[in-house]
Amino acid sequence: MRSPAGFLLCSLLLVAPHCTEVAAQEDKPDPKNPCANWMGGAPGYPGHNGLPGRDGKDGKDGLKGEKGEQGPKGDQGEVGLPGQEGSRGFPGHPGLTGMKGEKGESFFVYRSAFSVGLKERVPHPNVPIRFSKIYYNEQNHYDASTGKFLCSIPGTYYFAYHLTVYLSDVKVSLYKKDKAVIFTYDQFQQNNVDQASGSVLLHLSSGDEVWLQVYGEGNNNGVYADNINDSTFMGFLLYPDLDVH
């Protein structure tokens, strides 16, 4: 009879290989859980957030949406700068003919002028010189029989004379209403023909007379005229007195 100690030893020897095999199988690491055969520790803290990934590619445009409702009217904006001038348009059609106007007052041109010349030597001093050669006297305001111009249109007049001097001295005056206005004197030179002239502006009233005459004694009566030498007298209206007409 075997002793208990020997039986226990034999049992251990039989069980040992089996335990070794089981241990070997249990010691083989699990590829999915390599730490499964070790004593597990406490769970770790969550890791930090990773960096954001890159933006993906833009997707394709979707279908056009329906038209929305009209929004409220906005505030009026500021006035803008003037724009550039546009091109010229085409001419319009002629308008309708207007109504005939009322007849206006007739326009009257006031005329008064004369131009006369001497036919022969002056016969006497201190009387009007009668210029009987008529160059112009359409209004008949100059009277050849008296040698005087009679004013019919009140206004401003211009008078002038050009006299040939021969044989003696000449002293003449232009008269207005029996009063000498200007004097002209020319001293005759022996064996020579000379000239004397004068001009003036005068305001005349209706009925005023203007004429020329030799002033002084007979030795100043050298006014002369022939077929090649003239002595002339003239005058004309510059403008009438409109407040009178």
UniProtKB/TrEMBL annotation:
<dbReference type="InterPro" id="IPR001073">
    <property type="entry name" value="C1q_dom"/>
</dbReference>
<feature type="region of interest" description="Disordered">
    <location>
        <begin position="25"/>
        <end position="96"/>
    </location>
</feature>
<keyword id="KW-0964">Secreted</keyword>
<feature type="compositionally biased region" description="Basic and acidic residues">
    <location>
        <begin position="54"/>
        <end position="76"/>
    </location>
</feature>
<protein>
    <submittedName>
        <fullName>ADIPO protein</fullName>
    </submittedName>
</protein>
<dbReference type="GO" id="GO:0005576">
    <property type="term" value="C:extracellular region"/>
</dbReference>
<feature type="signal peptide">
    <location>
        <begin position="1"/>
        <end position="24"/>
    </location>
</feature>
<keyword id="KW-0379">Hydroxylation</keyword>
<dbReference type="InterPro" id="IPR008983">
    <property type="entry name" value="Tumour_necrosis_fac-like_dom"/>
</dbReference>
<dbReference type="InterPro" id="IPR050392">
    <property type="entry name" value="Collagen/C1q_domain"/>
</dbReference>
<keyword id="KW-0732">Signal</keyword>
<feature type="domain" description="C1q">
    <location>
        <begin position="107"/>
        <end position="244"/>
    </location>
</feature>
<dbReference type="Pfam" id="PF01391">
    <property type="entry name" value="Collagen"/>
</dbReference>
<dbReference type="GO" id="GO:0005581">
    <property type="term" value="C:collagen trimer"/>
</dbReference>
<dbReference type="Pfam" id="PF00386">
    <property type="entry name" value="C1q"/>
</dbReference>
<keyword id="KW-0176">Collagen</keyword>
<dbReference type="InterPro" id="IPR008160">
    <property type="entry name" value="Collagen"/>
</dbReference>
